[in-house]
Structures are given as structure tokens and as C-alpha cells.
Amino acid sequence: MPIEMDGDSLEGKIIKLLMEGRPLTLSDVADELKISESKIERVVKGLASRGIIEIEELPDKKYLRLLRSDIKFHGVNPSQEKAIKKKKRDKEEEEKGSEKSREMMYR
User: Fold this and answer.
1) SS3 of 101, please?
2) Residue 79, H or E segment
3) Is residue 21 located within the same domain as residue 40?
4) What pTM was computed for the model?
5) Which domain holds residue 95?
6) What is the Cα–Cα distance from 30 to 37, expressed in whole angstroms?
7) C-alpha dihedral over 66, 68, 69, 72, to 10 degrees?
8) pLDDT truncated to tens, each residue of the chain (107 aa)?
9) Structurally, how many domains does the chain consist of?
10) Could you tell me the sign of the dihedral formed by the alpha carbons of 13, 72, 43, 29, in that order?
11) Percent helix / strand / coil, the chain, rounded to 5
12) Which of 18, 61, 77, 100 gets the most CB atoms within 10 Å of its CB?
């Protein structure tokens, strides 16, 4: 059964980086996402406890490895979000236009 995850969450961003296939350390992920290493480590430990990733500790670095590949992401696609915003703005402009026409009618 696939794991469903929000693609915009921190967990989702970490997993997307690991899905690229290159070996990443904890500090690499923190640099890439521009988030503190301690926050990344907290999220990674949660993912490791759920069996999604594995932390391979070496004396000087912690490498991350993706254990599962059956992960589905959900969330709003940025192109969909722009369309929704545009529609909302167009609707507001129509309402303003109809209010102005009503004002002119009753003067």
C-alpha cells in the first residue's frame, strides 16, 4: 500500500530530494532546503521510525537512504493555484463592475 504524503511539507521535500538518487548527507539536505540541520534531523528521525528512510551514521557524517519507493504526493499544483487566484480576481472585478453600473443607474 503506497504512502500518501503532502508534497509541500518538509517530509515531502526531503523525500523528493532523496528520490533523485544521489547520496545525501543530513547537512546536504539542510543546505539544499535552507533549513537548520537540527530541524531536518528531527523530521528525518520521524521518517526513520516509520521505516521510510534509513540513517547511516559514519564518524563524521550521517547519510540518508530512501527505503521505500511507493510514495505518492498530493497537494495543490502551483499552476492550479495560479488559475484559482486568477479566477477569484476576475470574479471580484466583475462584482466591482456591476456595483458601479448599479450606482449609475440609480443617480
Assistant:
1) helix
2) helix 78-105
3) yes
4) 0.66
5) 76-107
6) 5
7) -110
8) 778 888 888 888 898 898 888 889 999 999 999 999 999 999 999 999 999 899 999 989 999 998 888 888 877 666 655 555 555 566 666 666 655 555 555 55
9) 2
10) negative
11) 55, 20, 25
12) 18
